[in-house]
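Morning!

As promised:
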Amino acid sequence: MSLNALLPLLMVLSSLLVGLIIFFLPEERAGIRIALNLAAAVLKLILVGVMSWGVFFYGLEYEFRMPLLHSQELILHADALSILFVTLSTILWLVTTVYAIGYLEDSPHRSRFFGFFSLCVMATVGVAMAGNMITFLLFYELLTLTTYPLIVHRGTEEARRAGRTYLIYTMTGGVLILTGTVWLHAIAGSLDFSYGGFVSDLVDEHRTALIAIFVLLIAGLGVKAALVPFHGWLPQAMIAPAPVSALLHAVAVVKAGAFGIVRVVDDVYGVEVAANLGVTGPLAVLAGVTIIYGSIRALFQDDLKRRLAFSTISQVSYIVLGIAIAGPLATIGGLVHLVHQGVMKITLFFCAGNLAETLGIHKISEMNGVGRRMPWTMTAFTIGAFGMIGVPPLAGFVSKWYLGLGALEVGQEWVIYVLAGSSLLNAAYFLPILYAAWFKLPTDSWPDERAFGSGETAWTLLLPAVITAFLTLAVGLLASMPFSPLHWARFITTLEYLP
Amino acid sequence: MLSFLLPQRVKLLGLLIAAGVVAAVAALGWQVAELGAQRYAIGGWGAPLGIDLYADGLSLLMLMVNAVVCLGVSVYSTGYFNRAYFRRSRAIYFWPLWMFLWAALNALFLSSDIFNLYVTLELLGLSAVALVALAGGADALTSAMRYLLINLLGSLFYLLGVALLYHRFGSLDITILSQHIEPSPAVWVAMGLMTSGLLLKTALFPMHFWLPAAHASAPAPVSALLSALVVKASFYIFLRLWLEIFPVDSSVFGELLGVLGAIAIFWGGVQALRQTRLKMLIAYSTVAQLGYLFLAFPMASYFAWKGALFILLSHALAKTAMFMAAGNILHFGGHDRIQDFDHVVQYQPLTSAAFALAGISIMGLPPSGGFIGKWLLLEAAINSGQWWLVIIIIMGGLLAAAYIFKVIGYAFTQSRKSHQTRRVPIRMEWTALILAIAAILLGLIAPWPLAIMDIGLPFSGEAAG
């Protein structure tokens, strides 16, 4: 086995091993735990760097194969699309680890938490690098199992209920995907992802079956991607600790669903075949509905994390929308939003966590004047929020620009109205928060204030938020530079449309 | 047998024998893998007069999983039947009975004639009943008594069928019978008798009523054995007869078995969900999982058989781990009420992990052995266009997830340590965990057991399906 084949395996195994070791570490060995976590994160970052270099400049394929079942293999594979997602999750994981260390200081069951945290990253990386449907399914289900303990980590009755809802939704979604995958295997005989899809020869013979499989797969993936009407678990899962919410929304669960939809449309069916089957249109409409619905629901939430949750429902559907419009420019927009939404949303969640940890603020109505008390946090929050609204030159603007252009390119003007409407709604639910934080006078005392020395809060909490806010700015400003997410999304789209 | 004589050394002896059997199975495994199916004539007489031992891929796999589970149970029992916790008079009976049971299982999987199968089945049943009664107390005795009656009834039916066949064809050897058999009233009656006897012992719905009580009231290692191996033994006999002796033209009957299996999956799942005691929950889960095995009959295709067998293997490992975990919890906290688990589970992370990992396999989530089995069954169902089976398999998985997470959900809630706890020997926790991990790993090494099944394939004729 060559070194190139080992790299993807190493990506997955590094977190697995770290996770297992952490389980057996005694609670008080925080030093070793932190060192292991960070070492694994940095190692991953290096591996991703090496692989993206190889993929881009030498057209290499990093692939690990292992037989799993008659004619089926476990494939871990680094192509351009998986590199995009892996890079996102690796960078954000590193940041979130720092944040979680600060956030969970002195709370019980840290070994358990960080153990599952590592396993969760392992599953995410596996989802990103899966080279066929069966491998994807394997890691996708693992992701469900490893996030469950994180969601119920607080151990309250409420957390247990939220965990149950989460399981009911995701397990049902999982079996839908399983059915679709087995069916697909029965028809197509192969499940390996390839640019432009692998089912084009079957369209004439199995048209109805292919449509049914598509519906099954998208419905199953839609549960994690929180498409309406499968979104009910997401606001409830807000009970989890802030770093978990951040990871769930920006990188792991929701993204895995969206990423899965990208894989199914682009690499299983292929954009043209999917359009030919007439399934992309309804998917685009569903995404549009989700975008508007999520935004409207967000307007009426007073709980900050719940408002962010509904905002996620709305924002993730941009990715689906971009893919479902089925044009090259829109695909670029969807793919780039996969990264952009992650960076922006994680910033917002870090800030929300900071407010809750430092001042005990959970509700928007308690945020009056908080900008003076915590200027750095609120600056980061502001950048994230402006990005979400789509103010140029921030990250969100780039995504929306490409989505709009892409829709016009294939003559679907209604998308423009959806984008405009959703931007207005975004502004409507973010601007009042910013106004209250910066311009209203603070109340006499905060709900539950804790002192953190001279700074506004602990540096482990502040630094991650500032870094991701900076990234939001950078990926927007430097969008046309090589190796920016946009650049990489163009690279993928070229591969998809010119197989 | 020796262990009757040497009660002091019994633990050591048990472990030595366990290791010996494992080595023997490994050697046999190598032989079968290299040379194909093996046949030994004891005493050199050979069929149709003497007793033959026969090993092909199927029996080899059964022996292997048998060896793994039994080794685990042996190690576990050294902790469980410790004098401090268990009355010594009872504990010393465990080992000889256990060795009998194991011997009976090994002989059963190696037998090649139907009378020999009967003898081993009877031996198996009797030692199992005695083991159930070992727990003591009125509950255990009642269910042991019931279990005994069921066992005798099942064996009686089976024996009648055997007698009929012998009368008709003058042979008991499976291979010889399969060459001579032809549809006739006598054969049908024999088949009916043997089938109902075996299904009673396999606890297929609606003949499952005896199982939960018997499995739940036995000591933990015994419950593990019963669920993992003993019910599988009669299923194994049934499968052999079905594939090799019974006339092929039995599709209606196959459908019926499939329907019963489907009902078992639902009934077992729903009942498991309703239980408030952990061991009862696990026992009903066995009823449901046994249902999966019978789903293969209406499809009767190559993949379906393999899927069912794979579920059988992974269930054996996972269920052993689960019962062991339940035993640990019971031992630690003194009760197995699911609602009060948060007091217990938090202080036994290894046991909880074992339960959760075994649960993954029972639910059929990847990458466990259960997943592979389910995948094969699903694919077979889709290939043969039997969509009702697809729905059953899917719903069964969801039900399993529901009842397993009902337990796991309590593992994360916070609560104080309850006042009365007893230390659990660490090896009991580890055995449970290792077996659970084995059930998961079975999914990752799937090609290997699947290839073993192909040696001397009893269902080769149907490979085309």
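The CA atoms of residues 380 and 469 of chain A lie 5 Å apart.

Hope this helps with the figure draft.
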